Amino acid sequence: MSTTLEYLSWLIRDAGLIELCQMDHGKLDIGWYDSADNLLHDARTMAGSGNLFTTINRIDLNAIKAHLEAERRVVLNKVCRTPDAAVTRYCRLFFDFDPKRPTDTSSTAAELAEAEARARGLARRLAAVGWPAPAIGMSGNGYHLQFRTALPNTPEVKAQLAAICQGLHLEFSDDVVQFDRSVRNPARLCALYGSVKRKGPNTPERPHRKSWINIPQDWQQVHPRQVAALADHFARQSAAAMPTTRDRSPVGAPAVSGRGDFSTLDVVAWFAAHGTHVGALSGIKHGVKCPWSSEHTSASPRTGSDSIIYESDGGWPGFHCSHSHCTGRTIRDVMALWGDADAYCSGEFIREAAHA
Fold this sequence. Notes:
- This protein is α+β, with helices and mostly antiparallel strands.
- The chain has eight helices and 16 strands.
- The strands form four sheets. Strands 4, 5, 6, 7, 8 and 12 form a six-stranded antiparallel β-sheet that branches. A four-stranded antiparallel β-sheet has the order 2-1-3-9. It has a four-stranded antiparallel β-sheet with strand order 13-14-15-16, with helices on both faces.
- The longest helix is centred in the first third of the chain and has 20 residues, at about 110-130.
- The termini are far apart.
């Protein structure tokens, strides 16, 4: 296994600055480091209690200083974590497999083995399409894959990561292991490998474990086009999975009715008619202005890359917006909002005949 110093040295090399965070019974102790040796020295003094974590992406030191000054003017001596906006680049693609188990408990050996099997299975699958080997980590209760990369912290990259994490969540999550689709935010914390993960009582069946990571001898970066290709794969898969009948809507989804066959919906012309089509991005993907842009807390880029539509690829067209206000919204929500999708369908919906 790789040493903690080796892991931190790689992280300093790629990220430049690292936040070290100790969480101990609701209390936070935070510092930022540009030296692996200094971080490790302080981590050893903190290791007797709580849990230790670090950031994994490149942080702008000036943005951190400005953030701390602004926050301390509001609340004196407030302990402040790195905000997502202070991250300039993704240095790691971080995939987390966590066994399902009772709340606030550590994993059993059997549960941990299930998570390991899923993580290594994904690593083999990505290797088959040309991805380089990842670092494989055991967090104490689950398994991680860390792929080196260099992706800008932009709305388009966030949308790609959202599509990938959602696709992997649907593919790998079940009642045994959960693929955590929430770990894609830029300032995400990851276990400091080599530290002990303490969760719940330390028992023989559910013990506190020392985390570890194994770094490949030749740890290469994933190319941005490989990330984009995987995102497009899951986006196409999502679009193709949309039903062609009206009686298979997901629980809680808006009811959609009308005469049009929505697998023939010209989604580009539809968005253009509403003045929200921005332009083609790649393949079947187009940038658009989100129909709910007035609810967003930040402005969209001119490319429209934070809100995307996908032309039909066998099923219904797709819609995705990376803003938090639009989490969970799909093409069904747009149909329910605008109410005129029928007019842009080239075919009519034919309901299946009822069985006698």
